[in-house]
Structures are given as structure tokens and as C-alpha cells.
Design brief:
276 residues, alpha+beta, 6-stranded antiparallel sheet, 12 helices, 10 strands, 35% helix, globular, binds fe (ii) ion
Length: 276
Amino acid sequence: MHLAAVMAMREVGKTPWYDAHFLCFYEAAKVYLAKVRPDAIDSFVEGFAPLHTPRDFQVREVEALFSEAELEPIRTVVRDLSSRELERHELEHFGRHVVHDHPYFVDLQLQLTALVSELAGQELEPGYNFLSLYGNMGRCGLHMDQPVSMYTLDICIEQDVEWPIWFSELVDWPDREILANFDEEAIKRQLRFTPYVLKPGNAILFSGSSQWHYRDAMPRPGFCHLLFFHYFPKGCLDLVESSNWPRLFDIPELEALIDVFRQTYPDAVDFKPSFA
Ligand SMILES: [Fe+2]
């Protein structure tokens, strides 16, 4: 079984973008099950139906989610962050400091669950969140998020530059072939992308696990402080956390694949993303 797991991982290959661990593991699981539990593939694939974004979902813009007065305590939290709290691992590739799951924002995210559920058209529960403090080297390459971030509410806190985020039309989850031949420019050419500009206090809801998205390099030196609140369908925690899959699907053979995956990607603990 261990060998089959290694072979399946090799067939799918490396994660082509920073948030692709879930998809790579999902695709490897299908390859692996074809060898060790072919009887289980159909129910395994069908089990993920709740995590596929409904076809009629549309990006939702929320004007004045927060007033200037309501933004002030949020900005105070940001100003009061110590340098120790600022994560630096995305400075090189994204030009940003990040802070994951700050208690103030965990609470704020929870408060917004009902609103975001209404906007998304289905009942949701919060995943994780992070604060993104883009500096003048800000950029965000084309990618898709993991289903723990199936829906993202992106809120602009403060900025001195208008900086569009581009969303593709809704698409299926990228399959093995797309993962293996990931070509950012080809995807940008082949799909229709729409730019959206956020202003302080405004927010936008998108489906990051079914919409490619990116930001070009900042148009001029500036800064842009954003919150990203991630949500997934209520009751789907076992699906978004893949360590639960062997039990959830009653396929104990998947444990061997999880072991191999963890050895290959030690940072992808439980496939919870460190980015989004
Ligand atoms: Fe993302």
C-alpha cells in the first residue's frame, strides 16, 4: 500500500501553486484508490459534492460593510500588532506581512457568518482568517484556494492605492492535467477575468476554490491592508480536513497516502493552508 501511495503522489506531481495541497491530495487519492480500492472511488468523489460551488454563484460586492467609525477599532488592532506577531514568510513572494487568526478577527469573522451565508446563498461556517498587510512590493499570482476557503469575504481596511483583484468565471476544480501543466498565462487567456476594486470599508465575496484569482503588481508604490475571512458549507469540517477522510469515507487505506503526503509536504499539516 505504501508503494501504491508513493506512486500515486508521483503521478500527480508537485503542488503547482501555493494553495494547491488539497487538490493534489484529492487527485492522488483518486489515482491511489484506483489501485487499492477501485470499488470506493465513486462514493469518494460523490462525497465532495457539497464542496463544489453552485453554478449560479456570483461575486457579491458589499459597499460600506464597515463605516469609518467601525473601521477605527480594526485599524487600531493593526497598528498595535507587535513585530513578533507579523508573519514574514510571504514577504518575498507576495510583498506582505500576514497575521493568521488574530482573536479580534476570529470574533469578527464569526459575527459575519450569517451575512456571508445570506450572500453565498447557503449556510456556512467559518474556516480560518488572516490579515494581509501588503506593502509597495505587493502582488498575488494566479491561484485557486482550498475548499476550507470555498467562500472568501475580502474586506479592505485601509489603502493608499486602488489595486484590482481579478476573478475568473466559475470553473470546475482543476484536474490532474491542469495541475501537471499549470500555465498561469494560458489560464488568463482562456478564461474570462473581471477586475474588482475595493475601497476601505467595502468587501467582496468570491468563491476562491472555484474561481482563479490574482492581483498584478501594485500599480505604484503604496500599501493595501486587507482582511480575508474564509468560510465553507456548514457541516463540512470533515470534508475540508483531509485527515478525516479515512474515517468519513470508511477507507482506512487512505491513511497510507496521508502519511506519504505529510512526508512530502511537511508544511501542509492537515492540509490547512498557511496562505490564501
Ligand atoms: Fe486566494
